[in-house]
Amino acid sequence: MLDTQTILQIIAARQDFSDFKLVETDKQSYEMFFVHSKVETVRKAHSLDRQITVYVNHDGKRGSNSFDLNASVDEDRLKAMLDRAKEQAELIFDEPYVLPNDETCNVVIDSDLADAEPMDAAAKLADAVFEANSHSDCDINALEIFVVKSVLRVVNSRGIDKTQTKYTAHVEAIPTANGEDDSVELFENYDLASLDADWLRDEISARLDDVKARLSAKKPEEALSCPIVLNANELSELFTAIVNDLNYANQYMHVNLHSVGDAIQDNPKGDRLCISARGSVKGSASSNSFDLDGTNLTDRELVHDGRVVAGFGSSRFAGYLGKTPTGALGCVDVRVGTTPCEELLKAPHLELVYLSGLQVELLNDYIGGEIRLAYYFDGEKRTPVTGIAFSGKLSEALNTVTLSEERTVRGNYAGPCKAKIEGVRIF
Amino acid sequence: MSFSKFLDSRRGDCVALVRELKKRFDYVSVLGSDVKALNVRVNKKTSAISDATDADCGFVIKLWRGGAFFEYSLDDIAGDKEELALRIESELRVPEKYEGREISSRPLCDEPLEKSFRRLSDFDKYDEKDILRACEKARDLLLAADENVVNAMALVRTLEVSKLFVSENRTLDQNYTWVNGILVVNYREGDRLIGAREGVASHNLAYALSSLPLLADKLIDKARHLVKATPIEPGVYDVITDPSVTGLLAHEAFGHGVEMDMFVKDRAQAKNFIGKQVASPICNMRDGAGAALSVASYYFDDDGVLAHDTQIIKDGVLVAGISDIGSASQLGTEPTGNGRRESHKRKAYTRMTNTFFERGEDKLSDMIASIKHGYMIFETNNGMEDPKNWQVQCVAEYGREIVDGKLTDNYVAPVVMSGYVPDVLKSISMISDDFSLEGAGSCGKGHKEWVRVSDGGPALKLKVRLG
Fold first, then answer.
1. What is the Cα–Cα distance from B454 to B290, expressed in whole angstroms?
2. Which of A162, A166, A367, B432 is the 20 to 30 Å CA partner of A21?
């Protein structure tokens, strides 16, 4: 396998490229797979992925071509691949753009996962999941744990040479409740930025309580009509969809629904939304310090008090639009509201716990989904329900949103733990 | 196209590594993958030719000596095999606390077989320039067709797969190709912006490239209707599914539920329903890499098991599940050639391949005529399974209202179909006599482990909740 220095020397020696970029990802993982509480599979994986992009300015335009380098590629093969890449780049007639330049860094994203042997970290996370189960009628039917070290390096012909080392863990668990005649489960998965076994134990314990509730959940005898309370998983999907629409690439292609100045809440009756795209959020495994072009990530508020105030995106599309690049931001941060969760849950509502998948469609102004577990609160009693669905207008849901004052971090999302929306139909 | 030169050059290494590791393990196999994947994409303002994320090159070694399975993924296996074998054994450890807490499993089957498989392809006759030109032609047709088209994208994704499987008793290799062509328009009328798509799939580029521009008129017509689509009034309706949504139903309602690694984990109700009526007696459903020619058609799976054609539902009765070698070993059943990996870096699970309802005897026109008021729903968007509790959600891109036995131009979008699987499948009352498979999608296990799958079938008439 060619070493990185040799690859860079071979590309740099070429005079026929206007620019080049190498993105290299060195990933090592230790993985454990459980069936019930028994070890089914142990895996280790080590891969070095490399992608080369060459850029050729021609005819007043700019073309590029990207290709992967794998273990089979020797020096002669690389030279042949570069020749072919040049030919293919000359077939592309994009508007000119410039690459980020003259920055170097070597960043290690802080995580206590770095301090543990991957196997020990995996065992500690497995312990936390199994220890969470204090119910005799509950089980963890399956568990998968991945402990990953990932080293990303981006080098380009304009003086970018950046390295980021990141440690993450992924946990997928299936809490299950077993009744006399029935058995039900939940599907839970977590991307973790730290080895916080206590948090995981508490989280799984709460999900085991939920799955027990699912066992007794019934379809309501009468149609429900009340506000809906969303939790962090659904809020992440909702706000990520809104943020993605505001990407510079979408704006450049004219396929964005909203532009700067547009209201995403045209008649807000609840909290006014403030939504930012961010490069990193403490506790989020989606955090990065630069993107795959080598652009440093810069946080950007996109929506302020319900109105779009900015877009975000890579150096290329920012350049096309005459904007300042933020880099490809992967985290979403929503300003919390002023209502405590307790207050949010006081009036009758349906609190969603487990959906088959939240459907958020900006273009169709739609929000909805099939509800596999929710808690219906009628003002006095909290009852687990299942077998129902909800749908409504996204714009109306956003106009009526009330955000909790408590904040959480889940996946790529940081923001209110809960939010209440009105005007959706439950059926 | 021809089998990977890189994998060919590592045949001896695979054999030597298997021999070395056999000193330490009862079962050893090596799977080498060299998957070339190319994306050619043109938009109104940008174009790109690049390797796609489906590309994969490397090796995975599977090991067993009673109890748990072990796997080791790496980029290359060249070099000293004794040293590599020692490294693999020393790094693949069970944490001390979990030693002795391993599953029970039977020896993995390793019946002797040496075979090479090749699917004829015309990929050698075309280069990236030909593909780019076909994409540009389709894009230009779309952009010229209607001033409301704000963007048009044409995408061609090619896949050329070479895999080499070596165990003590088996040496298998395969090489095959697949291509997907996709057209997407973004269409704006007043304040309303919508997206619409059409696609074509084949193992030959000639068919895909010539078909792509021919889809432009149909796509524009669809966009013009979809931009006027209204939300559906939620309720239970008589519904006809097009082959794409039929396939999604097969995939989500029962496909995931008969993946037998879910049986091992007690995560699928289907385990308790083998031999029982689970669908209308006119329903027959199959899965298999050897059951049809589409994106998930291969000759052997990532465990070295030959492709099958598995009947899952026969006359409404659940008759069989599908499995990878590991789950079959735990259940004491025969593997069905459904062990698939996202890439050599990932674990093999039981996965669907080409999953479909078999054709029936009804004419689609008769099915539509039989409905007083309902909807015909079209095009898979996404779906979600729940094999344990048999809930299902299928999202279609759009529906067309049926009134007094006639398909109208009243479009609704999006359409979410949901319900309890046996209720949905037992409500199937008519099945059309035509058939098609959609091979453009990917399927995850949970929220990861993406593999390319096809699904489809005929049109089904059923009664179900739409929202």
1. 12
2. A166
Chain A partners within 8 Å of B413 (Cβ)? 364
CA B375 to CA B362: how far, in whole Å? 18
Is residue B218 located within the same domain as residue B291?
Answer: no
Mutate to test the interface with A, among B4, B60, B267, B466 (most CBs of A within 10 A): B267
CA distance A339 to chain B (A): 31
Interface test with A, best of B192, B260, B389 (most A CBs within 10 A): B389
Integer-rounded Cα Rg, in Å, for chain B is: 24
Which residue of B9, B92, B467 is in closest CB contact with A42? B92
Residues B276 and B408 in one domain: yes
Task: Say if the Cβ atoms of B384 and A370 lie within 8 Å.
Answer: yes
B73: nearest CB among A45, A119, A120 = A45
Query: Does residue B38 fall inside a structural domain?
Result: no
Does any domain span residue B40? no
Q: Tell me which DSSP letter residue B284 carries.
A: -
Tens of pLDDT, residues A357-391: 898 989 889 999 889 999 999 999 999 999 898 98
Looking at the fold, whether B89 and B142 belong to one and the same domain comes out as no
Determine the pLDDT at residue B266: 94
Determine the distance in angstroms separating the CA of B74 from the nearest CA of chain A, rounded to an integer.
5
- For B70, which residue in chain A has the nearest alpha carbon? A42
* B427–chain A Cβ distance below 8 A for any pair: no
User: What is the tens place of the pLDDT at every residue in B128-174?
Assistant: 999 999 999 999 999 999 999 999 999 999 999 999 999 999 999 99
Residue B75 is nearest to which of A70, A363, A370, comparing CB atoms? Answer: A70
pLDDT, tens only, A153-193: 999 999 999 999 999 999 999 999 999 888 999 999 999 99
Residue pairs between chains A and B whose CB atoms are closer than 8 Å? 225
Please name the member of B129, B193, B345 whose beta carbon is closest to the beta carbon of A257.
B193
Residue B239's DSSP bridge partners are B375, B462
List C-alpha distances in Å: B209 to B51, B55, B59, B386: 19, 21, 33, 38
Q: Is B52 on the interface with A (CB under 8 A)?
A: no
Distance CA B310, CA B291 (A): 7
Task: Specify whether the CB–CB gap between B17 and B85 falls below 8 A.
Answer: yes
B147 and B219: one domain? Answer: yes
B64 part of a folded domain: yes
Kindly state whether residues B423 and B441 are assigned to the same domain: yes
B4: nearest CA partner in chain A: A72
Asked if B73 lies within 8 A of A37 by C-beta distance, the reply is: no
Q: By residue range, what is the domain housing residue B312?
A: 235-466
ipTM score for this prediction: 0.95
- Asked if B10 and B128 sit in the same domain, the reply is no
Q: How far is it, in rounded angstroms, from Cα A339 to Cα A350?
A: 17
Mean pLDDT of chain B: 95
Distance separating alpha carbons of residues A65 and B14, to the nearest angstrom? 33
Do B349 and B398 sit in the same domain of this protein? yes
Same domain, B143 and B246: no
Q: At what angle do helices A118-131 and A197-216 cross, to 10 degrees?
A: 40
- Please give the tally of structural domains in chain B: 3
Query: CATH top-level class for A4-216?
Result: alpha beta
Q: Which residue has the tokens 């075979």?
A: B115
Domain residue extents for chain A: 4-216, 228-426
Q: Which of B105, B162, B347 to probe by mutation at the A interface, max A CB count within 10 Å? A: B347
Model pLDDT for residues B3-45, shown as the tens digit of each residue? 999 999 999 999 999 999 999 999 999 999 999 999 999 999 9
Per-residue pLDDT, B446: 84
**Three-state secondary structure call for residue B465:** strand
With respect to residue B47, please indicate whether it lies within any of the assigned structural domains: no
Query: Nearest CA of chain B to the CA of A35: how many Å?
Result: 6
B277 touches chain A (CB under 8 A): no
